[in-house]
Amino acid sequence: MEAFAAFFGFSGMLVLFFVLWLFSCIRIVNEYERAVIFTLGKVGATPKGPGLIFVFRPFQRAVVVSLRTVVLDVPSQDVITKDNVSLKVSAVVYFRVLDSKQAIIRVENYYYATSQIAQTTLRSVLGEVSLDELLAAREKLSLRLREIIDQATEPWGIEVTAVELKSVDLPEQIQRAMGKQAEAEREKRAKVIAAEGELLASQQLLEAANKVSQNPVAIQMRYLQTLSEIAAEKNSTIVFPLPIELLRMLDRIGAPKADPKE
Q1: 109-135, pLDDT tens digit by residue?
Q2: Which element (helix H / strand E) includes 235?
Q3: In this structure, are residues 65 and 33 in contact, taking their beta carbons and an 8 Å threshold?
Q4: pLDDT for the residue 4
Q5: How far is CA 153 from CA 109, 116, 118, in A?
Q6: What is the domain partition of the chain in residue ranges?
Q7: Percent of the chain at pLDDT exceeding 90
């Protein structure tokens, strides 16, 4: 009886150990994940998942890789532009794993590697442009950064979907200089607009004078209209404007006549 009980006790321990081992070999892979299986150090042909998978421990090992888009925050980088302006630029990189197998066997840490590629590419590309190009063509530079980073990470099975320049920190001296430049540009536009208004007004006055001079009656009508406008204001002092032609006629009448004998 003792031997029989010992046998069943040993068998029960084996069954319990087998059940525990069986549960440890079962893995659940989510919809957005893939499991790369290594059997005795050799990688499997295709990743497994999603769903329930079996990993034959200890001869197999599973490395789970997420396929979701990763938002990588690139810290501020010290950049010297083409026109020798020192500034700090930060960016955001959006990437995702397309081939989980290549992301594991081609690079030690694909997240860290992508971060380093993004930082070095950001410094090198922005160092080839001037400050005005950096501020005015940010979308163009973002597309160029995305192409370069995506080309570098393509052998790792990683696709870079977008790169966005997040912030550009300018020195205070550059900010003051840009403020003065913007103020001078606004003053320039104001002066040009005022000069254009004066030119248009002079052209309109010239056209009106040419039309009025063609008919003497028009001058008289304008004279009477001015008098009516003055009378409507009920001023105590009324100034009567005299046509310039009338003053010239009086000047000719008052001028001494030349002696015909001289």
Answers
A1: 999 999 999 999 999 999 899 888 888
A2: none
A3: yes
A4: 52
A5: 12, 11, 10
A6: 15-66, 70-175, 214-253
A7: 34
Closest C-alpha among 79, 155, 83, 87 to residue 120 = 79
What is the b/e burial string over 156-174, where b = at least 16 CB atoms within 10 angstroms of the residue's CB?
bbbebeebebeebebeeee
Q: How far apart are CA 109 and CA 117, in angstroms?
A: 12
At which residue do the structure tokens 């030119």 appear? Answer: 199
Query: Residue 199 CA to chain centroid, in angstroms?
Result: 40
Lowest-confidence range among 12-16, 51-55, 234-238?
234-238
> What CATH architecture does domain 70-175 belong to?
2-Layer Sandwich (3.30)
CA gyration radius for the chain? 44
DSSP 176-207: HHHHHHHHHHHHHHHHHHHHHHHHHHHHHHHH
pLDDT at 2 over 60: no
Predicted TM-score (pTM) of this structure: 0.65
**Considering only CA atoms, which of 145, 171, 147, 150 is closest in space to residue 160?**
150
Buried b (16+ CB within 10 A) or exposed e, 20-31: eeeeeeebebee
pLDDT score, position 236: 55
pLDDT at 44: 87
Give the number of other Cβ atoms within 10 Å of residue 43's Cβ: 14
Dihedral of CA 153/166/131/76: which sign? negative
